[in-house]
Every structure is written in structure tokens, then in C-alpha cells.
Write a structure and sequence with these properties.
61% of the residues lie in helices and 5% in strands. The chain is mainly alpha-helical. 3% of the residues are buried.
Length: 157
């Protein structure tokens, strides 16, 4: 009969702890989040699995959340976390009240500048945004424009 060394006992104990950690994370995340948050990989495996239909996938999970806000956690080593929201109060807070706290950055501008130009929706500086917002505020408050905008968004989503 062979003797079990300290290294083998330590490795077995660590394996057992990893399994317990995974089970705890699985149980805890199942009751708190619609997407499973893996200990090292975050929510990336499920999101990558559904990358071909990412808009439908995000919409489905946003509808499941009572606050219509979903915090995505990427791999712990990549620092790739972000927040998705479709709640009207949160969108108003981001787009109107505290716009300067939510920077879009050069990548966002590069992607959307072709379709949206350099206007209010891709502006990152608070001064430029404030002057553009004042110039189109009357359009945004128009009832017919709001109905058209809502109809268009419903068709897209």
C-alpha cells in the first residue's frame, strides 16, 4: 500500500475547495443574475455562445431583470465589465442629467460617426453636448417626434 503525501492531500483539498467555490458561485448567481457568472471567466462564455444573436440575447435578459438593468462581468483578468440598461429613468439620467459622467471614447465615435455624424449622440465633451442639446431640444420635446422615435425603437428592438 502506498502512502499519501502532503502534496497529494493538499491538491485534493484544493480541488475540493474549487468545486465548493464553483457550486457556491453557481447557486448564488442563479438567484441574483439571469446570466451565470463563472469564477474566472465571468459571463463571457454564455455571451460568446450567443454572439450571433447578441441583441436578442441582451433584450431577453433585460426583460427578465426587474430593474431593466444588467451588470455584465467579463473575465477577472481582462477588466471588461459594463452595464446594460433599458429603464427609462436610467436612460434619462445618462443622456440628460449626468451626461459628462459617461464618456463614450474614441472607439464609440469611430463606429458611430458614419451613421450619426459628429452630433449630439457621439459628442463626448460636455460643452459641445450642451450647445447641441439646446439647439435640438424643441425637436426632442415635440409629441409627433417622440411617437415616431418610440415606434422606430420598438420596430428595431
Amino acid at each position: 500500500m502506498t502512502n499519501i503525501g502532503w502534496l497529494e492531500l493538499f491538491m485534493a483539498f484544493m480541488g475540493f475547495l474549487l468545486i465548493l467555490l464553483w457550486l457556491y458561485c453557481y447557486w448564488h448567481q442563479r438567484k441574483n443574475s439571469p446570466i451565470l457568472n463563472w469564477p474566472l471567466l465571468g459571463m463571457s462564455p454564455r455571451v460568446l455562445w450567443n454572439a450571433h444573436r447578441i441583441r436578442d440575447y441582451a433584450t431577453h435578459h433585460l426583460k427578465q431583470c426587474p430593474t431593466a438593468t444588467l451588470e455584465f462581468r467579463g473575465p477577472c483578468f481582462a477588466n471588461h465589465n459594463f452595464l446594460l440598461t433599458s429603464h427609462p429613468v436610467n436612460v434619462h439620467y445618462i443622456m440628460s442629467k449626468h451626461f459628462y459622467n459617461f464618456h463614450k471614447g474614441p472607439i464609440f465615435k469611430k463606429i458611430f460617426a458614419d451613421t450619426m455624424g459628429n452630433g449630439i449622440f457621439v459628442s463626448d465633451q460636455s460643452d459641445s453636448w450642451a450647445s447641441q442639446r439646446m439647439s435640438i431640444q424643441s425637436l426632442l420635446k415635440n409629441g409627433r417626434f417622440q411617437q415616431l422615435f418610440e415606434k422606430t425603437i420598438q420596430e428595431k428592438v
